[in-house]
Amino acid sequence: MKNIFVLIFLATFILIVFLTVRNLFRESSAKIISDSHKPTDAISAKVLADEINLVNDLSKIVDDAMNGANGTYAIFIKNLKTNESYSFNEHMKFKAGSLYKLWVMGEAYNEIKSNNLSLSDYLTEVSLTVGDALNQMVTVSDNSSAFALTNKLTAVNISSFMKKFNFSESDFGDETNEPMTTAYDVASFFEKLYKGEIVDSSSSSEMVELLKEQTLNDVIPKYLPSEIAIAHKTGDIDNFYHDAGIVYTKNGDYIIVLMSESDDPSQSAVRESVISKNVFDYFNSQRG
Questions:
Q1: For 272-288, how does the pLDDT look when each residue is reduced to its tens digit (9 = 90+)?
Q2: Contacts of 200 (CB under 8 A, 6+ apart)
Q3: Which of 50, 68, 92, 188 shows a CA-CA span of 20 to 30 A to 181?
Q4: What is the fold, at CATH topology level, of the domain defined by 71-283?
């Protein structure tokens, strides 16, 4: 009889230990599952995944437009609302073409701010006021107006302006060397202009409005809605074809710089206009 009681006691003890260990295991598992599904962790993971997808998507839409391209390209794109960006060969130097006129315009407003120049000053070389010459130089890329303004401002002062605003990858050139620049420097100019940092806020605003009157619209604006405001400047010389500026949209403004050198600049211009359209559609599409 005594042995029976011992066996019953041992069986009861073993059962109690088993049930205790099982409950502890269940509580531990539940805590691990709960912690691994906290809302903050889930949200963080989704945000990270979305950020990765955004970068990949922007790269993809540019890469798709570049498929089969001949020649050399440099691209810089930056959303000024989200800071999402894409760049390719952004530090490669190209002949600036008429993009150098951005620096001439900047130095002109710098001298106006310093009271060394007035929009009403007369340039006898082109029979235009400084204001009218700036308009002609920017909106129709008139070379005579650009040369007259350069003579008035001097190449030394324009180079000093470039150094002051840290366009260190660019060169204004001289009698034997043409102006050179990079997509990075051009994008930097437009971003500083957008932020009101070129000379001052008022001068920057006036330059933006001037650039919005650009009439050479066969690249960045070509396939965009006509009501979209675009402050941009073109540049083409020899086998080079460029367009760069700020695109203003309801979903956020962005900078786009497109530069190329190829045996067929007209085809490069077409490809650049397709890139512009793809970027516009991308930034203005609804993304979850």
A1: 999 999 999 999 985 54
A2: 113
A3: 68
A4: Beta-lactamase (3.40.710)
